[in-house]
Write a structure and sequence with these properties.
Layout: H1 3-10, E1 15-16, E2 18-25, E3 28-34, E4 37-42, E5 45-52, H2 56-64, E6 66-71, H3 77-83, E7 96-98, E8 101-103, E9 109-121, E10 124-136, E11 142-145, E12 148-151
Antiparallel strand pairs: 1-11, 2-3, 2-6, 4-5, 5-10, 6-9, 7-8, 9-10, 11-12
Length: 156
């Protein structure tokens, strides 16, 4: 199987859309769009993100030893597109903070973490984060399926 076939198969798994953030370093807050997020454990509270080994965010998280994850609501698609380098936003993005770690305000949920463990796995690095704090709000999720943004449609 070639890489495109594998990518197409993985695109059949519907995911939420997240923004990964890291505390301010040179140049301010860093963020990236990602859908590779997993809740791992309730005790201790652990989550995992997967970062491409070529991404600038990899070294940023390594240096900070902390990261945030914000689960986007459907109206936040422009924020996802901005951090995916698809379409820059005209207005500056505001961040909120928990434990001095930035997150996207008004997202469905946000978690902030200390890096608990890093595992190099192929062309990505997995960061397992120990959750320090969370924030939860109401709304409908922004979804990603077959390379496109989607929204939940109400069944009638």
């Amino acid at each position: 199987m070639d890489g495109r076939e594998f990518r197409n198969a993985m695109g059949r798994f519907a995911t939420g859309v997240t923004i990964i953030t890291a505390p301010e370093q040179e140049g301010g807050v860093h963020g990236m769009t990602a859908n590779a997020f997993v809740s791992i454990s309730l005790d201790p509270k652990l989550v995992m993100i997967s970062i491409d080994n070529r991404a600038n965010m990899l070294e940023t998280i390594r240096k900070a030893d902390k990261f945030g994850v914000s689960f986007l609501r459907e109206e936040q698609q422009p924020i996802s597109m901005h951090f995916a380098n698809q379409k820059p936003m005209e207005e500056e993005i505001e961040f909120a903070y928990m434990d001095n770690i930035p997150y996207i305000p008004n997202s469905l949920a946000s978690v902030v973490c200390d890096v608990h463990e890093m595992i190099v796995a192929g062309d990505h690095t997995l960061f397992i984060g120990k959750v320090l704090d969370t924030k939860v709000e109401d709304g409908d999720p922004l979804l990603f399926y077959q390379g496109q943004y989607r929204a939940i449609e109400e069944q009638q």
